[in-house]
Amino acid sequence: IDRVHLQQPENEIFIKNVINLYQPLLVVNKVQSEIKYIQIVNRIQDTIKKNLCTQIYPLGNISLQLYVEKSTQALVPVVSKYPDSPFAGELKRITENLLKIKYEVHA
């Protein structure tokens, strides 16, 4: 923002508005543990806050699973081949979190 203010002051309001409306969402893939997930999210949140002056909303994670690899090799969606797998549950949580954020933003 400071550089825009100095180099292109006529665009400063536009850039601020774009940044204010920007709401990045995060899904972390192939996570080995919940602790690793939290560490990754914290690191990304710190970087986004520092560099973009905004926050990122973590939707959830997809853990490292053999189900995903097998399904990919078979060219069949994981939730079709393994509907009761941890992946299916994680995908459901991510979807629920996305819907919560969507409705909070538009409420």
Structural class: alpha+beta
Helix coverage percent: 55-70%
What is the ordering of alpha helices and beta strands?
HHEHEHHH
N- to C-terminal distance = 29 Å
Q: What number is the mean pLDDT?
A: 87
Q: What is the β-strand count?
A: 2
Rg, Cα atoms, Å: 18 Å
- Which regions have little confidence, pLDDT < 50, spanning 5+ residues? none
Main sheet: strand order: 1-2
The best one-word shape is: elongated
Largest sheet: 2 strands, parallel
- Tally of alpha and pi helices: 6
Estimate what percentage of residues fall within beta strands: 5-15%
Can you walk through the features of this model?
With 107 residues, the protein is α+β, with helices and mostly antiparallel strands. 64% of the residues lie in helices and 13% in strands. The protein contains 6 helices and 2 strands, in the order ααβαβααα. It has helices spanning 2-7, 12-21, 34-52, 66-74, 78-81, 86-106; strands at residues 25-31, 57-63. The chain has a two-stranded parallel sheet. Helix 3 (34-52) links the parallel strand 1 and strand 2. It is elongated, with a radius of gyration of 18 Å. The mean pLDDT is 87.
